[in-house]
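Need residues for this backbone.
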């Protein structure tokens, strides 16, 4: 009831984090509520902003409404928020009112931060290559150096940057170790795989382990099925030809892509089908039986 910002639960991406940060810069108080169930009552609230879920103004997943930049990169949640509120955020944070300076700041942040995050969120559906000038870890650390008009010393800034890098290092180290620990689980799942389907009773990072596996059965796997990380039910996911590839061993029918709920159930004949991502690489259903049937329909399509 108190929430001013509503987004999906479960796993999150840079688009979700950046959207939250942007709205936190705009409003004096943000109460975040993460959920995967958006009711009509919640959707029509006037005192809350809903992002990346619910097919609202800041959810770009609606297949009938895909705002796009001239360069072909779609507006995702951060881009939509920045497009609408960017000038207001700049004015509030900087107290600058010169429209030319504001526009320069707006364009710089759009190019260096907003577009790279939007692009990352759409890379599965973009086939053409784009040259993205992103703020990578090196540029982020450079941003910690004091500006000419800062009062902070370089030594103080060095300590701040060290704290930040320590968090990044610890998180990345933990992620690498976690992937290594998951290899035995993935290998067992490969052994048990049948008819191009691999099942994971619990989600673990599986892609790298599957692609480097020496098990001959690994090459014949076309879909991985695992419990959903965002809601009840299960997901199927396509297997890319290699890590980072947007080309898959098996593509799902184009007519499934971007559909949710009733529309998707009509097209697929899967009684509890919940969604198919607009790029076609991911989908799901409420039951394991239906998710397996969903993936098998894709294999046989």
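Answer:
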């Amino acid at each position: 009831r108190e929430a001013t910002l509503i987004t999906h639960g479960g796993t999150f991406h840079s688009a979700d984090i950046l959207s939250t940060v942007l709205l936190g810069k705009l409003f004096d108080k943000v109460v975040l509520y993460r959920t995967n169930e958006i009711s009509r009552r919640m959707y029509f609230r006037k005192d809350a902003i809903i992002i990346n879920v619910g097919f609202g103004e800041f959810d770009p997943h609606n297949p009938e409404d895909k705002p796009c930049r001239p360069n072909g990169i779609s507006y995702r949640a951060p881009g939509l928020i920045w497009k609408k509120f960017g000038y207001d955020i700049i004015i509030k944070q900087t107290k600058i009112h010169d429209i030319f300076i504001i526009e320069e700041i707006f364009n710089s942040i759009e190019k260096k931060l907003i577009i790279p995050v939007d692009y990352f969120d759409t890379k599965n559906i973009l086939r053409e290559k784009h040259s993205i000038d992103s703020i990578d870890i090196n540029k982020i650390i450079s941003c910690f150096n004091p500006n000419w008009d800062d009062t902070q010393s370089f030594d103080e800034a060095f300590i701040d940057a060290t704290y930040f890098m320590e968090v990044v290092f610890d998180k990345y180290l933990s992620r690498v170790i976690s992937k290594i620990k998951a290899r035995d689980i993935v290998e067992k799942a490969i052994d048990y795989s049948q008819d191009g389907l691999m099942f994971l009773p619990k989600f673990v990072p599986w892609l790298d382990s599957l692609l480097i596996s020496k098990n001959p059965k690994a090459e014949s796997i076309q879909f991985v099925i695992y419990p959903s990380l965002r809601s009840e039910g299960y997901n199927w996911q396509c297997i890319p030809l290699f890590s980072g590839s947007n080309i898959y061993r098996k593509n799902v029918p184009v007519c499934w892509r971007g559909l949710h709920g009733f529309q998707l159930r009509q097209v697929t004949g899967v009684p509890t089908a919940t969604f198919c991502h607009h790029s076609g690489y991911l989908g799901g259903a409420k039951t394991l039986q239906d998710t397996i049937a969903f993936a098998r329909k894709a294999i046989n399509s």
